[in-house]
Inverse folding.
């Protein structure tokens, strides 16, 4: 399959009028979590429009990878206190494994001068491997809860079933 991220694509901030396509990409790609994450954390749609609106209002800026006029992947970026967060990183299923996620992540890493954190489901081993391949390291379990409560607004059940990765890595205290 041809790599999109290396040539002929553009990584740019998403426009406000692209929220429907952002939701479409997120919800299509999130189908990979169905049956993997705890059933009490799965819902349809995975991300409803009002949740996207709340995240954007809270400062999540979505970046997209576009090729030939089509948005193929999105990744949210949010500055919170003294870190930057990667939020909602998804690539259309028919465009995965072409370097799009990696290109988006690299672009956002270049924009940041601070530690970057990302939270994902503990059972999503493919997502964890993706971030590890791109220089992120799992945060020690003893620090995960504190980080999730400090930088995210998520329910306790999600905290129980999630991991946090950091770049540069966090060392145990």
């Amino acid at each position: 399959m041809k790599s999109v991220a290396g040539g002929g694509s553009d990584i740019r901030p998403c426009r406000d009028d692209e929220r429907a396509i952002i939701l479409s990409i997120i919800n299509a790609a999130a189908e990979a979590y169905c049956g993997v994450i705890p059933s009490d954390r799965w819902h349809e749609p995975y991300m409803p429009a009002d949740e996207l609106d709340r995240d954007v209002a809270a400062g999540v800026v979505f970046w997209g990878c576009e090729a030939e006029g089509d948005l193929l992947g999105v990744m949210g970026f949010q500055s919170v206190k003294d870190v930057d967060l990667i939020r909602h990183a998804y690539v259309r299923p028919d465009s995965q494994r072409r370097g799009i996620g990696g290109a988006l992540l690299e672009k956002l890493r270049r924009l940041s001068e601070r530690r970057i954190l990302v939270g994902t489901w503990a059972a999503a081993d493919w997502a964890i491997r993706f971030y590890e391949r791109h220089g992120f390291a799992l945060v020690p379990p003893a620090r995960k809860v504190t980080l999730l409560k400090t930088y995210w607004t998520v329910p306790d059940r999600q905290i129980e079933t999630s991991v946090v990765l950091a770049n540069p890595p966090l060392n145990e205290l």
